[in-house]
TrEMBL record:
GO terms under biological process: methionine biosynthetic process; transsulfuration
Lineage: Bacteria, Bacillati, Bacillota, Clostridia, Neomoorellales
Entry-annotated residues carrying N6-(pyridoxal phosphate)lysine: 195
Pfam families, per the entry: Cys_Met_Meta_PP (PF01053)
Cofactor dependence: pyridoxal 5'-phosphate
Keywords (A to Z) from UniProt: Amino-acid biosynthesis, Lyase, Methionine biosynthesis, Pyridoxal phosphate
Class of enzymatic activity (EC top level): lyase
Identification of the protein by name: cysteine-S-conjugate beta-lyase
Family, per entry: Belongs to the trans-sulfuration enzymes family.
Molecular function as annotated in GO: cysteine-S-conjugate beta-lyase activity; pyridoxal phosphate binding
SUPFAM superfamilies for this protein: PLP-dependent transferases
Length: 383
């Protein structure tokens, strides 16, 4: 089956009991046992729920994995994956990752004795040089957020395997429709399903997938123990979102390409970061491991004032920290999604106040372009 078909048809996409084409929302916490000695498939919703199971099966099939896990948010999925490690373990982590993941790794996990080094994973020699005897994991995001830096997933996975490291990749930006890290040797994929998979800015959710039975056992224990599971109704919303992932994402990608090419020629735009653009660093690697550039782009303006002006003056994109939704969302990563990074690191990475991130929605490309044009060209007007 082609991937677009799989979005609609997976093993649990219909209700086996009734033939309902939409999975029922099993709004029940307790599942009664037949008798004391006959526990059923489900007992208690924290440890398992049929609606959640359907979503977990869907994401496992889409990512080419065997075991899926649904969590209350992307951060809950990431927290569970990071909880695989123990005190004294050392982790290597991509430098420009999602701000919340950075915060977890810089401020929370070190309290429990996890050691973390942030590295430029676009350069695997640098990564190899940082591996110590205590290094146990490699955490990646590609394309990175917000500068769309590309890490070679297959090579990173091979390097990690040589040293016995568990690899985790955040696949939120690409979704399994465009990129499947498990097929390239990555051990665990995590998602903020809040973004493209849900797609409508109305549901916070996270997912994790693996092929490995041992890791799946650990993740099952963590999901049940941390208790950060996704509620049945939210599972249903993500299942519904997944059905339209292809049409949304391909349309958003088409518009993102048009806008990226147009922005690149604009005299007030210093740089455009979009993997779909000719000349984007790592573009060849990206297209070896992914089937498109996605729907998010960032661009650097001539001055920070102009970046503020553009964000304040656009009429269609909403100002917000999220992405992957039907509505376009514009943000200033330096103070919004990446506000929790130390100032020095932000400067070093280029996440400065002249950088704007745009998550392209389903509005017409002409309207978005005209809107950006008026926002760039109206020197004084402020919303
Ligand atoms: C939003 C996001 C997260 C966090 O997900 P939540 O659902 O907000 O908890 C993690 N990684 C990436 C790349 C994200 O964009």
């Amino acid at each position: 089956m082609q991937r677009g078909t799989r979005l609609i048809h997976h093993r649990l996409s219909m209700d086996a009991a009734t033939g309902g084409v939409s999975v029922p929302i099993h709004q029940s916490v307790v599942f009664a046992q037949e008798s004391l000695d006959q526990p059923g498939e489900y007992e208690y919703t924290r440890s398992g729920n049929p609606t959640r199971r359907a979503l977990e099966e869907a994401i496992a099939e889409l990512e080419g994995g065997n075991y899926g896990f649904a969590f209350a948010s992307g951060m809950a999925a990431i927290t569970a994956a990071l909880s695989l490690f123990s005190s004294g373990d050392h982790l290597l982590v991509s430098r420009d990752i999602y701000g919340g993941t950075y915060r977890a790794l810089a401020e929370v996990f070190p309290r429990f004795g996890l050691e973390v080094t942030f590295v430029d994973t676009t350069n695997l020699e640098t990564v190899a040089a940082q591996i110590r005897p205590s290094t146990k994991g490699l955490y990646l995001e590609t394309p990175s957020n917000p500068l769309m830096k590309i890490t070679d997933l297959a090579r990173a996975a091979a390097l990690a395997r040589e040293h016995g490291l568990i690899t985790i990749a955040d696949n939120t930006f690409m979704t399994p429709y465009l990129q499947r890290p498990l097929e390239l040797g990555i051990d665990i994929v995590v998602h903020s399903a809040t973004k493209y998979l849900g797609g409508h800015s109305d549901c916070l959710a996270g997912l994790a997938v693996t092929r490995d039975a041992g890791l799946a056992r650990e993740l099952t224990l963590l999901q049940n123990t941390l208790g950060t599971v996704l509620a049945p109704h939210e599972c249903w919303l993500i299942l519904r979102g997944i059905k339209t992932l292809k049409v949304r994402l391909l349309q958003q990608q088409r518009t993102a390409t048009v806008l990226a090419e147009w922005l690149r020629k604009h005299p007030q735009v210093k740089a455009v970061y979009y993997p779909g653009l000719e000349g984007h660093p790592g573009r060849e690697t990206h297209f070896r491991q992914a089937d498109g550039g996605g729907g998010v782009l960032s661009f650097r303006l001539a001055t920070p004032e102009l970046a503020r002006q553009v964000i304040n003056n656009v009429r269609l994109p909403v100002i917000g920290s999220s992405l992957g939704a039907v509505e376009s969302i514009i943000s200033l990563p330096a103070t919004m999604s990446h506000g929790s990074l130390p100032g020095e690191l932000k400067r070093e990475l280029g996440i400065t106040p002249d950088l704007v991130r745009l998550s392209v929605g389903l509005e017409e490309a002409e309207d978005l372009q005209a809107d950006l044009e008026q926002a760039l060209d109206s020197p004084r007007g402020h919303r």
